[in-house]
Design goal:
Blueprint (H helix, E strand, L loop, with lengths): L1 H21 L2 E8 L17 H9 L1 E3 L2 E2 L4 H10 L25 H7 L3 E7 L17 E5 L11 E4 L2 E4 L4 H19 L3 E10 L7 H4 L19 H28 L5 E7 L21 H4 E2 L1 E4 L8 E3 L3 E2 L3 H8 L16 H4 L11 E5 L2 E5 L3 E3 L5 E3 L15 H19 L16 E3 L6 E5 L4 E2 L4 E2 L9 E2 L7 E8 L3 E10 L8 E6 L2 E6 L27 E10 L2 E11 L7 E9 L2
Parallel strand pairs: 1-8, 1-9, 2-12, 3-13, 4-5, 4-8, 18-23
Antiparallel strand pairs: 2-11, 3-10, 5-6, 6-7, 9-11, 14-15, 15-16, 16-17, 19-29, 20-23, 21-22, 23-28, 24-27, 24-29, 25-26, 25-28
Length: 592
C-alpha cells in the first residue's frame, strides 16, 4: 500500500501544475503596417527592438510566415482560420471588412473553453453588434473598430460600447489595459486570451518626443528597394513608432515575469501586412498592398518557456490562417469548427514532433491579384515564377526552367479563385460581394454606433478625408442634403438618438431631423462647440488622414424604430445661418 501511496500523493500535488500546463494563457500581439525588416533581429542597423527580438530568442521564429496584403483580410484570417473571401470580407471599409455572423472566431473558441478574452487596440472587423468585438467572443474591448485612428494622444476611444477619452499615447494606453487584464486574471487564477492589436506604425505618424528625438536628425543608411520613392520623414517616424512598440512589449514581458506566469503563457508576435512605406525591408519586392514577398511576409515569433525550446527556427512556410487551429491545439482545446478550416495546426513543427512536413500552397490575394507560395517557389500575380529559396527578392523569373511547377501553381490559383468566388470567376475578375446593411438594435446589446465612416452624404456635404475610417462630415450648407446609412433594425422599439458634433457660435440654430421609415426625431443645435484640431505637434511627417477634433455629444430625442431594412436619414430641415454642423457619430440606445 505504501508503494502505491507515494505516486498517488505525487500525482495529487502535481495536479495544479498539470492543469495549468493544459490551459496556458495566450497573448497574440499584432502590429499595424510594420514590415518584416522593421526589427533589429532581421538586420536593421538603426532600429533597436531588443524586447521583440527577445521573444524570438527565448522561443522560436518562423523564417517564412505569410499574411494578406492589407489589414482587414489578415485580421479576418487570424480570427477564423479561413481565407478571408470565405467569411464575406471584401474590402477595408464600407462594411466590407465585416466577417459573416455564422463564422466561429478564435475568441469564441477560447471563451467557450473557459478563458477570459480581451481585445485591446484595433479591431477592423465591424462596428455594430454582433459584428462588434463583444459579439465575436471577446469579454473586454478597449480600442477602436475602424481601419485606422486619426489621433494617438488622448483620443476618443471605445470601452465596451461606450465612447470615452484615452489616457496618453494610444499604444501605451492599450498596453496598460492589457496588463491590467493580465493582473486581474492572474489573481483570479483564470486563463486568459489577449489580442493586443497595436495601431502603429500605421499613420498618422505620431509618436512621443522621447522616441522621436533619436531619429529627428538621423540619416538612415539602409534604403528600400525603391529608394527614390522613400519618404525619409515617414521612415524615421515609423522606426520611432516601432521602438515605442518594443518598449511596450518589454513592459508586458516584465509583468509576466513578475507575476510568475511567463512559463505558462504562449506569447506570439506578428504584424498584419508589409510596411506602409518604401523603406528597407530586407531587399524584398513589394510593400503593403502587394502580393509579393515584401507585402505579405511577416515576422512570427512565439515564446512558451514551458514547452518551446529557446532559439528554435522553423523553415517550413506557415500562414495567418494557421493560428486558430495551432493555438487551440497547443492549449488542448477541441475546436469542432462549424466550417472547414483552411489553416493547419503547426503544433508538430512548434514542439518538434514532426520530422517530415508536407509541401503546401499558401495564397495571397487582394483585388485582382492572386499569388501562390509553396515551400520553394512563388507564382506572382503576373504569372512569373520565382525560386524564393535562391531568389528571395524576386529578381529572376524561372518559369521557363520549371514549366510543370508554373502550370501546377497556375492551375491551383484558378481553382482557388473559383472555390472562393464561384464558377465564372477568374483571376482577372474574381467577383463582387453584395453590400450588406449596417445592423441596428440587436437585442443583446443596448447601443449601436453609426459613425460617419459608414455613412454616405449628398450634395455639398464633404468628407474630411478620402480615407473614411476616422473621418467626419463638413460643409453642410444646404437643407436639401443629408447623411444616410443603409441599415436593418433588428428589434423594433424606442431608441434614444445622440450625435457627436461640432459647430461654431455663428452657425448655431440648425434644426436636425433623424428619420427612418416614417419615424422621426428632431432637435435644435443650441450650443456652440468649435474645438481646435489636435495632434499636429506630434505629426512627424505630413498628415494623410483626416484631422481630428474632440466632438460634443448632443441628444436628438427619442425615435420609434420599426424592425426592418431601409435608409436612416439625418437631415438639417432648417439651416438659418452658414451651415448646420460638422458630424462625427450617431448612436442609438434602446429605451424600451
Amino acid at each position: 500500500m505504501k508503494v502505491l501511496l507515494v505516486p498517488l500523493i505525487a500525482s495529487i500535488l502535481l495536479l495544479p501544475v498539470l492543469q495549468a500546463a493544459a490551459q496556458p494563457n495566450v497573448i497574440v500581439i499584432m502590429t499595424d503596417d510594420q514590415g518584416w525588416g522593421d526589427l533589429s533581429l532581421h538586420g536593421h542597423t538603426t532600429l533597436q527592438t531588443p524586447n521583440i527580438d527577445r521573444i524570438a530568442k527565448e522561443g522560436l521564429q518562423f523564417t517564412h510566415f505569410y499574411l494578406q496584403p492589407v489589414c482587414s483580410p489578415t485580421r479576418a484570417e487570424f480570427l477564423t482560420g479561413r481565407y478571408y473571401p470565405r467569411s464575406g470580407v471584401y474590402s477595408t471599409g464600407g462594411g466590407g471588412e465585416r466577417i459573416d455572423l455564422d463564422e466561429q472566431t478564435i475568441a469564441d473558441v477560447f471563451k467557450n473553453a473557459g478563458y477570459d478574452t480581451g481585445l485591446f487596440g484595433k479591431w477592423h472587423s465591424g462596428s455594430q453588434y454582433p459584428y462588434h468585438p463583444l459579439g465575436r467572443g471577446f469579454n473586454e474591448f478597449y480600442g477602436f473598430t475602424s481601419g485606422h485612428w486619426g489621433l494617438y494622444f488622448d483620443p476618443m476611444i471605445e470601452h465596451n460600447g461606450t465612447m470615452t477619452r484615452g489616457n496618453g499615447y494610444l499604444p501605451d494606453d492599450i498596453t496598460d489595459r492589457a496588463m491590467a487584464f493580465v493582473e486581474k486574471n492572474t489573481k483570479r487564477d483564470r486563463p486568459f486570451f489577449i489580442y493586443l492589436a497595436y495601431n502603429t506604425p500605421h499613420s498618422p505618424m505620431q509618436v512621443p518626443d522621447r522616441f522621436w528625438k533619436k531619429y529627428e536628425y538621423l540619416v538612415i543608411p539602409q534604403k528600400g528597394t525603391l529608394a527614390d520613392r522613400e519618404d525619409p520623414l515617414h521612415t524615421k517616424a515609423a522606426l520611432a513608432m516601432c521602438e515605442n512598440v518594443d518598449w511596450n512589449v518589454g513592459r508586458l514581458l516584465d509583468q509576466l515575469d513578475i507575476l510568475g506566469v511567463a512559463d505558462d503563457t504562449i506569447l506570439l508576435y506578428m504584424t498584419d501586412n508589409g510596411p506602409n512605406g518604401d523603406r528597407w525591408n530586407g531587399g524584398m519586392k513589394g510593400r503593403k498592398g502587394s502580393t509579393d514577398e515584401g507585402g505579405i511576409r511577416s515576422p512570427m515569433f512565439m515564446r512558451w518557456p514551458a514547452q518551446i525550446e529557446a532559439g528554435s527556427m522553423i523553415r517550413e512556410i506557415g500562414g495567418i490562417i494557421d493560428l486558430l487551429p495551432t493555438l487551440a491545439d497547443l492549449a488542448g482545446i477541441p475546436i469542432n469548427p462549424p466550417k472547414t478550416l483552411d489553416g493547419l495546426s503547426l503544433k508538430p513543427l512548434i514542439l518538434g514532433l514532426e520530422s517530415a512536413w508536407p509541401d503546401r500552397n499558401l495564397v495571397a490575394h487582394w483585388g485582382e491579384r492572386v499569388s501562390i507560395r509553396n515551400q520553394q517557389f512563388r507564382l506572382d500575380h503576373a504569372g512569373q515564377l520565382f525560386d524564393i529559396t535562391q531568389d528571395p527578392n524576386q529578381l529572376q523569373d524561372v518559369a521557363a526552367g520549371y514549366p510543370e511547377v508554373a502550370k501546377k501553381l497556375h492551375d491551383f490559383a484558378d481553382s482557388w479563385v473559383a472555390d472562393m468566388y464561384g464558377r465564372g470567376a477568374s483571376r482577372a475578375k474574381p467577383g463582387d460581394r453584395p453590400a450588406r446593411p449596417f445592423l441596428v438594435g440587436h437585442p443583446a446589446f443596448g447601443i449601436t454606433q453609426l459613425p460617419a465612416r459608414d455613412a454616405e452624404a449628398t450634395g455639398s456635404i464633404q468628407r474630411s478625408n478620402r480615407w473614411p475610417n476616422d473621418s467626419f462630415f463638413k460643409n453642410w450648407t444646404s437643407e436639401a442634403d443629408e447623411i444616410t446609412w443603409n441599415v436593418e433594425v433588428l428589434a423594433s422599439g424606442l431608441y434614444a438618438a445622440e450625435i457627436w458634433y461640432a459647430c461654431p457660435e455663428e452657425d448655431i440654430g440648425a434644426i436636425l431631423e433623424l428619420e427612418f421609415n416614417g419615424s422621426k426625431a428632431q432637435a435644435t443645435v443650441y450650443e456652440s462647440h468649435d474645438p481646435p484640431y489636435l495632434g499636429s505637434k506630434f505629426n512627424r511627417s505630413p498628415l494623410n488622414e483626416s484631422p481630428v477634433k474632440i466632438f460634443r455629444r448632443m441628444g436628438l430625442g427619442s425615435i420609434e424604430l420599426p424592425a426592418g431594412q431601409g435608409t436612416l436619414r439625418l437631415k438639417a430641415v432648417d439651416i438659418p445661418k452658414g451651415q448646420a454642423i460638422e458630424f462625427r457619430l450617431l448612436t442609438l440606445s434602446r429605451i424600451r
